[in-house]
Design goal:
308 residues; Rossmann fold; Cobalt-precorrin-4 Transmethylase, domain 1; 12 helices; 13 strands
Length: 308
């Protein structure tokens, strides 16, 4: 059985930065440090950091006075940032710089007097944070049906921004629907879909040309991992999202001659290795790596941690 690994896969620069912020904070300030929401959407990562002394909470109310507080890579609303400041909590912000870029664009469009449309999934932490960063009129849409349901005149000055982890195809479809329905629309096309999301989605499309089955390593609550699985299916290849090697069902791969393997942007490479080892227990395998786009992007750490 052939196993082909996608390139790129796994951790992106924003995830690497977020995890490093927690690890350096623990090293410099000692345990515990408190992280609002999962630092990234991967249980393995969260459990590893918990073992080192990180404490993950959903509300600032769970954080003791004066305790070091870290905002997750998904970003937080302005009200959360204000509440932390009002309490005098020392904060390190691990928001992905590409998510922060969306916040800034949304605020800029709002300041121009435009109604802002956020393309994204309701309830996702990144979406909640972005909605809470834009003052003025903001509308959340996910589908072309949502666009049709917007209660706005067709000449409304409109701008759109997008959740960073969406499918490129879905985003293009929604943007086209906005441009068809409204006469005064501005926005960044698909540039708000982060480079890592784009690269991993393109890699899955290439992988789908070569394999019989695709396994995507990632958490169920990871938006970008879910999109990778969906893209595999759209390409006509049975595709499965698995948290780790224990979630693989042997019948998925029993008759496959070639298995494609990738990982979402918050899934560590060790989980990919464990999947390979599990497949090797069932079959004799030949592992290769598909040529793809190499990533060399690094994001700057908070100044407080640079010398730690």
């Amino acid at each position: 059985m052939k196993v082909i690994l996608a390139t790129p896969r796994g951790f992106c620069a924003g995830v690497v930065r977020a995890i490093e912020i927690v690890e350096l904070a623990l090293k410099k300030y000692g345990a515990p440090v408190y992280v609002r929401h999962e630092i990234v959407h991967n249980r393995h990562v969260v459990q590893s950091l918990e073992a080192k002394g990180a404490r993950f909470v959903e509300s600032l109310d769970e954080i003791p006075d004066n305790a070091l507080t870290i905002f997750s890579a998904h970003g937080v609303s302005q009200s959360v940032e204000d509440a932390a400041r009002d309490r005098g909590l020392p904060v390190l912000d691990a928001t992905c710089p590409l998510v922060a870029k969306v916040h800034n664009e949304g605020r800029r469009y709002g300041a121009q007097g435009r109604a802002v449309v956020l393309i994204g999934h309701a309830g996702h932490p990144e979406v909640e944070g972005t909605l809470g960063r834009i003052s003025g009129e903001v509308h959340l849409v996910q589908t072309i049906e949502d666009v049709a349901a917007l209660a706005l005149p067709p000449d409304t000055p409109l701008a759109y921004v997008t959740q960073t982890t969406l499918s490129l195809d879905d985003t293009r479809t929604v943007i086209a629907a906005l441009q068809q329905r409204f006469s005064n629309v501005v926005g960044p096309d698909t540039r708000d879909i982060c480079y890592a999301t784009q690269n991993r989605q393109m890699a899955v499309r290439e992988l789908a040309k070569e394999v019989d089955v695709i396994l995507v390593v990632g958490s169920n609550n990871s938006s970008n991992s879910n999109r990778l699985r969906e893209i595999g299916e759209e390409c006509g290849v049975p595709s499965y999202l698995i948290a780790d090697e224990t979630k693989i069902k042997s019948e998925w791969v029993r008759h496959a001659r070639c298995i494609g393997l990738t990982a979402g942007a918050s899934a560590p490479e060790v989980l990919v290795d464990r999947v390979i080892n599990r497949l090797a227990e069932w079959h004799e395998i030949d592992v290769s790596t598909l040529v793809g786009k190499e990533e060399h992007i690094q994001f700057r750490l908070p100044a407080e941690l640079v010398d730690s």
